[in-house]
Sequence to fold (387 residues):
Amino acid sequence: MITNGFTYIAVLIFIAAMLVWLQKYTKSKFFDYAPPIVLLYLLTMIFCTLKVWDMESTKATYSALKNNILYAMIFLMLLRCDIRKIMKLGPKMLGGFFAASVSIGIAFIVTFAVMKGAIGAEAWKPLGALCGSWMGGSGNMIAVQAALDIGETEMAYALVVDSIDYSIWVMFLLWAINLAPKFNKWTKANTNTLDEVSRRLEEDVKANDSQITFVNIILLLGLSLVISAFGQNFGTMLNGAMPFLDKATWTVLLITLAGLIGAVTPVGKMAGTTELSNVMLYSVVALLASRASFLELTDAPAWIIAGFMILAIHGIILLILAKIFKLDMFTCGVASLANIGGSASAPILAGAYSGALVPVGVLMALMGYVIGTGGGIIVARIMGMFA
Fold:
């Protein structure tokens, strides 16, 4: 069992490296159905389940790196963003986000009505807090918990669901990327605008691919890390002065602002952002999956089943809405994860489609923080009527 933090990180990055290397040099069609990023998530979860590393001994290393690298990655990916081009994606993205939010609310209500006998008549309260998280983020969950006066013991099951069910959903959505062409054909979605915006942004990046130098890499690495550090420090300060937004939300806002400003400066034209941000992307995915064990499925089976029922109903409703309103896979997937995963995973999924589209994931996640608390409380009160 690995107990050393550095060894833990080294193994995670080595797994990522081997998967990327195997895809490139074997050129196997297997990777068309199971992309390296999905295999990385799955393998890391399996290793966590097998207790390859000690969770307690490596916790400090995980905590020290995950958010720091995540914010640095978001900044680097935003450097590729021309916000004027992103805005051309239009109101369909906004509609997709709210379609996901409404379907999540309905899914919670239906699930509680069906499962209240197994999970308890008072489960509407912790489920309401979980709904706040799955519409926004952890800050929204805490806010709903305080608003409904939910004790820590009651919250324990909701936290288990938030951990294991969410992890499986992220892995599923990453895998579903490969189905995008068939999905878009089935919904008759017009992806011309999305494809054009993505193509233009990618062309802007590729124009500088031949100019990658040591100077570029070291400057981008140093800049992204210092932006991550100062963004979190100022985020903490702003949360103290203006607590209506939590630290994570303030930090994401600051990092986003820094990235959008950097995108219109010479730094935004520097080659190497794609390669360096992809390294960080795979590192963050490995770190997230390294804390999700399949053994958690046995901790609270009725609650775990309820969580999967919520996700299934949400997915079915979103499929129906996608068919009716001709939504594409990118819009549906990122909208779903912007609600359920927030800023920690929506940019990752958007970046897996195209690094140039990360800002869409960030913007959707920020919208989730806005509606999460109110949405969670409203859904909780509706569920309470069925108690």
